[in-house]
Amino acid sequence: MASPLQILDGPMGTELNARGVPTPLPGWSAHALQTNPEIVQEVHRDYARAGATIHTTNTFRTHARQFPDNWQSLTAQAVDLARAGIEDFAGQVAGSVSPLEDCYRPDLSPAEPRMEHRAMARCLVESGVDLLLVETFSHRGEALIATQEAIDTGLPTWLSLTAGPETNLLSMEEIRSTAEHAVGLGIEAIMVNCIPAVAVGQYLEVLRDLKIAFGAYGNTGYVHDTTGWQSCDLDASTYQKFAQQWVEKGATILGGCCGTGIDHIQALAAIKT
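User: That's the sequence. What structure does it adopt?
Assistant: Structure tokens below.
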């Protein structure tokens, strides 16, 4: 029987670092759109070959705040590279909509983020994505504003919240209440991400009865001041075992966040339900 799982790809920044492509802050992985676009496309292709069916655009940092002169063209380029990378494979392109500031610093969330999120969501839609992935939000208010602006485009919208790599940014109760509100807005899936893989399961417990698709993409590593992230040694087999537990809780969307890689996604694609 065919698996009902949807497999998200893994992180772009981790793979760029592994291939020798610099990802300096604050633009992080988005710098590669200017310096090494062919490698960005290659990463998308490798994730597709590994079995990913949902392919996330490299737009996590293509904000006007980081690239005021060319954020729109970089966003469109990122969509084009994802589409080109998966052209020989089945799958959908998900436009990444991220926090305007640091995803681990909800205190930096701007007071009026709506217009910037509206502009990003519309730019992604105009560039040809299949769905919008509002991801890695630890500020509840900004998450819901970004979600509303994504939904208002008319495209399917998924939301992913994070408690952060130290699991101290959002409590399970806060994730639950934010998810409930987002379900009321009309999201089609809810997830948690950028939480250590070992801790993901407890967060899924508060999502499993919301009557929409849910899932997770955990991390393996820690925040790094220069590159943004430093991977640690959590092999694909171990990550797969954690993900199998998520599936047993009812998760149908699986992927990898910071620190995972091609092997981890291939292991997820091999999970049977």
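DSSP finds ten helices and ten strands in the chain.
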